[in-house]
Write a structure and sequence with these properties.
This protein is about 0% helix and about 30% strand. With about 250 residues, it is mainly β.
Length: about 250
């Protein structure tokens, strides 16, 4: 997690000491990177978001909703990896693969968009990403057979603007890189948050393993775009190029 900040150096890092501790109740697996904006720190778990005073650790507000019963995948264990902030909004994926926008000063719910049907083994764990007037999110559930995608939504309304599927559907170009029945439940999830290059106006997103991961009898071929990085046009979701690190 490279940072260009210079306040902490090799000369003073040994003097760092705890200032405060805030315990998230009922969280068994914390995988979140906190986000700080204008003195407020946002810390999340599954369906649970805290806004804290970054200087003191004092709780400013908490947004919480019940966990989804019957959920499969990592989100069922309470994992959420963070939020995105833009203007007066904070964005978070819920355990059942919804994307929500809250007022970041009060915690009031502004809108909610269903990214996918959790009954098809989709869930949400990754931190969304803000690019321009869009908020972009991937999904989890690949090891349970969900078909991965990255989708972009209007920040103000939650309306979906575009969707990039990480595995082509039958009959689409490059579907012949999947030979067998696994293309119908292919994995290639997108839970790792992407990166954006403003100079090139290009969004980069890493795509996970194909499924089933331990046996490839029903997915002969390279299995695009699993185990790849894809470069996307952030305004349209159009693929510019891809590189597959581990074919098949």
């Amino acid at each position: 997690r490279y940072s260009a900040l210079t306040q902490i150096t090799e000369g003073n890092v040994a003097r760092l000491a705890p200032r405060w501790v805030f315990t998230l109740p009922n969280v068994s697996q914390g995988q979140v990177t906190p986000v700080v904006a204008d003195g407020l720190m946002y810390v999340s778990a599954a369906n649970d978001l805290y806004a804290l005073d970054a200087g003191s650790g004092r709780q400013v507000w908490n947004y919480r909703r019940p966990r989804t019963r019957g959920l499969a995948g990592v989100a069922a264990r309470g994992v959420n990896r963070g939020v995105a902030v833009s203007g007066d909004r904070v964005f978070m994926a819920t355990d059942n693969a919804h994307l929500i926008a809250l007022n970041r000063f009060s915690g009031a719910l502004l809108w909610e968009a269903q990214m996918a049907d959790w009954r098809q083994n989709y869930n949400g764990t990754g931190a969304p990403m803000v690019v321009g007037n869009l908020v972009i999110s991937g999904i989890a559930g690949g090891d349970e057979g969900a078909r991965g995608f990255v989708a972009a939504y209007e920040q103000t309304t939650g309306k979906e603007v575009w969707r990039f599927w990480s595995v082509p559907a039958r009959g689409d170009p490059e579907a012949d890189t999947w030979k067998g029945s696994a293309i119908d439940h292919p994995g290639a999830a997108t839970w790792m948050t992407g990166s954006y290059d403003a100079e090139l106006d290009t969004l980069y997103w890493a795509i996970g393993n194909p499924g089933p991961d331990m046996i490839g009898d029903e997915r002969q071929g390279d299995n695009l775009y699993s185990d790849s990085v894809v470069a996307l046009d952030p305004k349209t979701g159009r693929r510019k190029w891809h590189f597959q690190f581990t074919p098949h």
